[in-house]
Design goal:
Blueprint lengths: L4 H9 L3 H17 L3 H20 L7 H12 L2
Length: about 80
């Protein structure tokens, strides 16, 4: 017999704080590490599109050194 979502939430609320935090972290990591197939496919298409634009010259690339400098500026380091 499987539990309903409400039952799972009620059970999770009974856990000690450290265990409920670990449960949250595990669920979140699983969602991030295993994106839905649709999202993964959309990113593949977008990545290929961007690469094609750069390779064709339609979009200028950014030198790695310049990109890192901009990142440091934004992050404040």
């Amino acid at each position: 017999m499987s539990l309903s979502l409400d039952q799972i939430v009620a059970e999770a609320r009974q856990l000690p704080r450290a265990q409920s935090a670990e449960l949250f972290d595990r669920l979140l990591a699983e969602m991030i590490d295993n994106p839905e197939a649709e999202i993964e496919q959309a990113w593949k298409i977008e990545t290929r599109r961007r690469i094609a634009e750069i390779e064709s010259g339609a979009e200028p690339g950014v030198a790695g050194e310049d990109a890192l400098a901009e990142l440091r500026r934004v992050v404040g380091r």
